[in-house]
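#struct-queue
[09:14] JT: dropping the first one here, sequence first, then the structure tokens:
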Amino acid sequence: MNRDRPPEPLDFFIWTVEDVGLWLEEIKLGSYRQVFEDNGVNGEYLESLSTFTTEQILRFIRRCHMKWGDFITLCKELRRIKVACLKGEQEVRRPWWAPACFAVVFVKVAKRNRQSRVVSLKLEP
């Protein structure tokens, strides 16, 4: 990934810990970047937040020393990304790890498979 640019929202469930940190900066929650990195919060973990029980959510908030309002902001931003993915509003670009020669192929396949990549998100309340 180009470290000067925030991570691709379409691929948030494969974000690294560093990608999550960049995203936190973008959504004005950068004060939590270090504690998220210390706790290994990556995109897969963020994706699983929607299935957490109340006890797990409270444990996460305590572990990350989050204010309740900041947790709500985090959830709203995740929801915004998921909805944009489902509507096909996210720009598709070649991921940072893919060779440039695959850019055209990747974008075509990603656009074709976009709905299958986010089908689990439709089950959220």
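[09:21] JT: and here's the second one, same format:
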Amino acid sequence: MTPKRGLITDTFKVVKKARRGGKRNKSPSPPKADPEPPQLSEREKDLQELKKFDLDCRFGPCTGISRLQRWERAALHGLNPPQEIKDIVLKENTDPEYTQSLWRDYPL
């Protein structure tokens, strides 16, 4: 008959460490007020939308062409680009921050 093998925990005593200081009475902290997000100006909102358009690969690559050209190319291929992007670009058609993509400063 083979001797019954026990678990390793049967061989060693369990030693629990005593807590220092005993129980603490914690007072509940007041709930944190959610800080309001900063209000964005219309320009910042527009530039955010244009940045989303630049980062959306569904409308094709955007390096080397203007946002309006990319929008028109996507529309030509039936990719349904958002109309608001075209409206934003046409509204501010002289400002390169509006007309050119995020990668305008990087050479091809």
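[09:30] RK: nice, looked through the second one.
[09:31] RK: The mean pLDDT is 84.
[09:31] JT: good to know. The radius of gyration is 31 Å.
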